[in-house]
Amino acid sequence: MDIFDNSLDEFRAATRANIAQHPLRAKPLPHGKTLPFSLHRELPRAAESIGYILAGLAIALLGSAGFIWALAYIWRTGPFDEWLIIGIMLAAVVASLGYKFLGHGIYVMLGSRTPLPTVEIDRGQLRPDEQFRLLLIQPGPCSLNKIEVDLAGQEKTCEEKQYHNAKENPGTYTVWSDRNTFLRILFEEENVRVRRGETFRREIEFRVPDDVMPTGGSEKHHSYWNIVVELDVRFGADCTHEFPVFMQQRLG
């Protein structure tokens, strides 16, 4: 599947002209060598799971304590009024919210425990209309519903917007926005199980289309590329890993 957004022709023309005047060069690889990409463990993802677990525990304990106290009060006194019913319902809602946070934190934690993949490519830069080879390495242990590798192009554009109170402040301000402008699925495989100490390896061959934007930028536009590995984790939150690659200009 290919997705390409052609609504940025003016920005792209300026970027191509700027790259032609100031070409970017990637360091060439020695013959027979590959360029490895590796990632560090995602600290924001770990912080998210810990935050949800701690907040969920605190909220669940508070709501459960209120619910149990209300039931014990009814057991001791017998009759109860409408305010007590409202209190029981409120405590139940708070407890359910806490358990929901706790479950989400555990779900994210299980997904983040999946070993990080590694990608190796046979050259230091991609070039339009050329063939490339890529090696995907997924260590175990892991159990995946699907593993997918994409070539994704993102572009960042600078847009001018007018202030909301245009009468009092008629000026404009600039905002940088990101958008995915290209996507090609290079590889996908379902029901992947890797035991501890083993690795899942796949060599992928692909050809870059001849009309893609090179890596680089101008005053109001930047283009960059990633090899994206998406892991659909069987028992946990899904993981997406991005490996930045350098896209050269097309020869000729």
Kindly describe this structure:
This protein is of the alpha+beta class and 252 residues long. It has two domains: 2-39 and 116-245, Immunoglobulin-like; 47-112. The chain has helices at 9-21, 43-77, 82-112, and strands at residues 2-4, 35-37, 118-121, 131-139, 142-162, 172-194, 199-207, 216-218, 221-233, 239-245. The strands form two sheets. Strands 1, 5, 6, 8, 9 and 10 form a six-stranded antiparallel β-sheet that branches. A four-stranded antiparallel β-sheet has the order 2-3-4-7, with no helix packed on it. The longest helix is centred in the N-terminal third of the chain and has 35 residues, at 43-77.
Give a summary of the structure in a few sentences:
The protein is of the alpha+beta class. It contains 3 helices and 10 strands; from the N terminus they run E-H-E-H-H-E-E-E-E-E-E-E-E.
